[in-house]
Specification:
mainly alpha; globular
Length: about 200
């Protein structure tokens, strides 16, 4: 884990799209995310069809998309560790609850049609990075002007209390408004596992 005093700077760089900072973050937390995923995958059938690396990539894909929108208020490395662990647990639970999803072992190569986007790997290719930017642009276009402003403030790392004081509003009300806006846009874009 990065030291507490370097964490805010690392997070600021990640929010700003710094690929090296993103790679550093993945390097620090990948083992934790994979360990949580493996613990959650108790069922041997699930382990045959889902790998902890799949879960890890999905977690980091969701995390990087959402952190750029300023959704998370993370003050310490421990906060990030708890968030990523929760996301990993939720991703595994989502897979357990969706038996109709074609999993790796259940699909023969000749049956695969390539449908359905894969989440970008932490070391995403230029094409995957472009897709992530396009998705972020699509999200921003669907936000109202005020929702976009809130997302920008959060992406800059400003705490809810500070943003609320500037707007003379409740920090909790602004946080809920921001969360509802992102959930609405996720539904509009068909992003089912936005967790």
């Amino acid at each position: 884990m990065p030291p507490d005093d370097l964490f805010p700077e690392l997070l600021r760089r990640v929010r700003g799209g710094d690929q090296q900072a993103a790679a550093d973050l993945v390097r620090h937390y990948e083992a934790t995310v994979r360990r949580v995923a493996r613990i959650q995958m108790r069922d041997p059938r699930l382990r045959r069809s889902l790998d902890s690396m799949d879960v890890c990539q999905s977690v980091f894909g969701s995390f990087f998309q959402r952190v750029c929108l300023g959704e998370y208020e993370l003050k310490t490395p421990e906060d990030l560790c708890k968030l990523l662990a929760t996301m990993a647990r939720n991703k595994v639970i989502a897979q357990v609850r969706r038996p109709h999803v074609h999993r790796r072992q259940e699909c023969r190569p000749e049956d695969a049609d390539g449908a359905g986007p894969e989440p970008p790997a932490p070391d995403a290719s230029p094409v995957q990075q472009a897709e992530a930017r396009d998705l972020l642009d699509a999200v921003r276009r669907r936000l109202t002007e005020e929702e976009r402003w809130l997302a920008e403030q959060r992406a800059q790392g400003r705490p809810w209390a500070e943003v609320a004081a500037e707007r003379n509003a409740s920090a909790e009300a602004l946080r809920k408004k921001h969360d509802r806006a992102l959930q609405r846009v996720a539904a509009e874009l068909g992003l089912e596992d936005w967790s």
